[in-house]
Amino acid sequence: GRRLVLTKARYGQEAFRQELLKRYGAVCAVTGPCPTDVLEAAHLRPFAEHETHDLDKGVLLRADVHRLYDNNLLAVDPESWTVVLAPSLRDYSEYAKLSGVQFVRGPSPEAVKKRFDEVRALWFS
Fold this sequence. Notes:
By secondary structure, this protein is an alpha+beta fold.
């Protein structure tokens, strides 16, 4: 069977993705080169906060990594530019491998730091 689903599409999201592909190539900011079919345009700050597609505050992430990022399970240390994972991911070996991985350079350091501080506060509150 099927069911009807209504969703909200963000204006400009595909153009944002195409511009990020031009900037970074077919490369996930965490895992490296990937097929473009699995790369998504990710906002370093929640889109709902600013509703703009700022290339300096966006990266490409593999779909599953994007989900981890959006669900506050993955962050980027603004000092070392390495991936930091939520303690709850420790027992998942495939994701645990991402801990300490170098994050792509290029996005706004301020956006990375703000997100890191917010996410770490959630983990240890």
